[in-house]
Structures are given as structure tokens and as C-alpha cells.
Write a structure and sequence with these properties.
Helices cover about 40% and strands about 15% of the residues. The chain has eight helices and eight strands, in the order E-E-H-H-H-E-H-E-H-E-H-E-H-E-H-E.
Amino acid sequence: MPSGFAPQNLIFDLDGTLVDSLPGIASSIQYAVRNHAPGVSLAELRNLVGPPVRQILRKLLAPVSDAQLDDLEGEFRIAYDSWGWKETEAFPSVLATLQSLHGQGLKLFLFTNKPEFAATKICEALGLRQLFEAMLSKDSRQPEFASKTEMLRALVDEYALSKDACLVIGDGQDDYLAAVQLQIAFVHASYGYGRLTTVDSVSSARSIDRFSALPEFCGRQNFA
């Protein structure tokens, strides 16, 4: 990130970056597993959150058939879309920091693997929705986006964003790789669920251990 870098467009991941969605995801997965795979012991979920839930279930329950995954994913979605999403909370200082950055004229965007229905519900409930110029989810189009790189490219193209004026903020390696592939500056939310490889972490070399530290990477005062 060059000295004096002052981005105008901030592009955020959701889970593990802006919000702590682990409690609702965990309880919804446990609900689905109880109904379709009784007796299965769930592994630690924290480091798995981020990818689509089907990928999480596949890692947790391997070996598992596609038919079982269909049932589990359907049951999870019923639970999460009904009540699981309501257990989500914003990380400390997220709302105040975003309001400040938005008020200073920065444009805020969201790209997430979370389906559009749940992402919208969460952002509306936490007072975040009105701060974003656009929110893009994996299922915001059909066929669905294959990766976060595709989502990021779609945002850049649709809104004619200058890559040199953008900053991606995320906790996962897919966020990092999307930024690298589009040659956009990246800040790692190290307090989140995701982990970068040692090589990627050194290559990125920019991280925050709390959300309120973000303004310093935007040429803004850290007020929190």
C-alpha cells in the first residue's frame, strides 16, 4: 500500500469482518445435523465460517453424499433464514466507523458469500444497509457467482471503480485472493474467522486487530 494512499471506495466482506455471525450459523448447523445426521460430532466451526454453507458442511461431515448435503443444506437454510440470522451482531465500533467514513464521502460496498436474503436482513437489522452503495451476494445473479473474485470484478465493472482508489477489507483468504487477482489493495481483518497462509500474510503485511483501526488505512483519523 503506497505512502499517502487514500482510497475512495471501500469494499467489505461481511462474516468475520463486519459481523459476528458464528452463533447463528453454529446453531442452525446443529439444528440441521440433529435432523439429518444424528450422532455426528461437530468440529470447531470458527475457522470454517466464510465459504458457502455447503462447503462448511462438506468439511464438517466428510465423508458425506451429495444427497445428504442437499438435505442438510435445505434444513440449515430453513433454520437460518427463520431465526439463525437474528443471532448476528456487529463487531465493536463497526457502525460508528462506517458512519464516519461514509459521512466523509467514501463509497462503501459489500461482497459476501452469504445469500442475499440473509445478508440484507442482517444489514438492515444492524443499521448498515443504508451505508452501502451496493451489496453483492453469491446469489445476486443467476447463475451464481463462482467466487469472490467474480463478485469483486462485477462490482468494479458495474460501478466503474478505479482499482487504484479501492481498498478491500476481509478476514478470509478468498477475500485476499480476490483483491490480489484484481490488483486492489487489501487489509486483513485478523480478528475474524479466516486465516491467511504465512506466505499470504507476509505478502499482504497489512492487518487490523480491531475494526476501529481501519480509518488509518484510509487517510482518515482513527477516532475510536
